[in-house]
Amino acid sequence: MTERRGLYPPIEPYQSGMVDVGDGHQIYFERSGKPGGKPAVFLHGGPGGGISASHRRLFDPQAYDLLLFDQRGCGRSTPHGELNANTTWHLVADIERLRRLVGAEQWLVFGGSWGSTLALAYAEAHPTCVSALILRGVYTATRPELLWYYQFGVSEMFPDKWEGFVAPIPEDQRSDMIGAYHRILTGDDREAQLEAAKAWTLWEGETITLLPDPETTEPFRDAHFAYAFARIENHYFFHDAWLEEGQLLRDAHRLHGIRGTIVHGRYDMPCPARYAYALHKAWPEADFHLIDGAGHAYSEPGILDQLIRATDRFRH
């Protein structure tokens, strides 16, 4: 049996800083790996999740010149938790600004979970700027996907965790959980905001791995992280991510000619596998790996193995 691949060794950025993208937003970015190497950009999940040091380790540092950034309002970007001028299309424009900043004519785009949504939106808008596309935990942000995770579906798999998710919401408002959370997370009651933010965020943290994994869940318990994560994620999903229904699959023909890899856990709870499979059918140039015995998190061994193999395959 072929040995599974794991992360590359820890690496520090060779450059980091802030970029003023307008509208009062400053976004944090960092570059690691080989200056002048294969250009790549990493798009984190959430929305509102931010980058971590381990994300740098998905790429061969001897081959890639990698840019990572915290999307508007999260991580080290400021203002923290800001929703104004924070939409999918603002982020797509930010990616283009960063591409020009590093002087890359084309770059490899890697996105997982919400990052896959953003990667698809970016690649379909700017296909000539993408040398290759790696997508993990494909999410197309349609109404059925949103309802599956936040209304009825995953609730049947995790009734104990669901109890914690619905707790901040009055019973007579639970027929629209995204809307009910939106009222609290954008309201004036700071204490209620934080309580709701923690419940929203922990629901995700406790349902993204096939088996319980305290190490993966722990960051989701942090109040500072949860505030931005819940506010931004709910803001995006309340507005259907500013996408027309079914837009990303409808426009998958724009990916024609782009090399790619799709990696998806069969038992991914937040992101049902049928949408990754539909993308595979609509974009045949991409390799497709449906990983048995895996959920959603990129750290799950079978998923991580294929992601590292993908970044290795596209490094030249």
Labels describing this entry:
single chain; 316 residues; alpha/beta; eight-stranded mixed beta sheet; 12 helices; 8 strands; 17% strand; globular
From the helix content, strand content and strand pairing, which structural class follows? alpha/beta
Number of helices: 12
Mean pLDDT reading = 97
Largest sheet: 8 strands, mixed
Radius of gyration: 18 Å
Secondary-structure element sequence?
Answer: EEEEHEHEHHHHHHHHEHEH
Form type: globular
- Low-confidence runs: none
Helix content: 25-40%
* Beginning-to-end CA distance, first to last residue: 26 Å
**Major sheet strand order:** 1-2-4-3-5-6-7-8
> How many extended strands?
8
Percentage of residues in DSSP E strands: 15-25%
Task: Tell me what you see in this structure.
There is one protein chain. The chain is built from twelve helices and eight strands. Strands 1-2-4-3-5-6-7-8 form an eight-stranded mixed sheet, with helices on both faces. The chain is 38% helix and 17% strand. It is of the alpha/beta class.
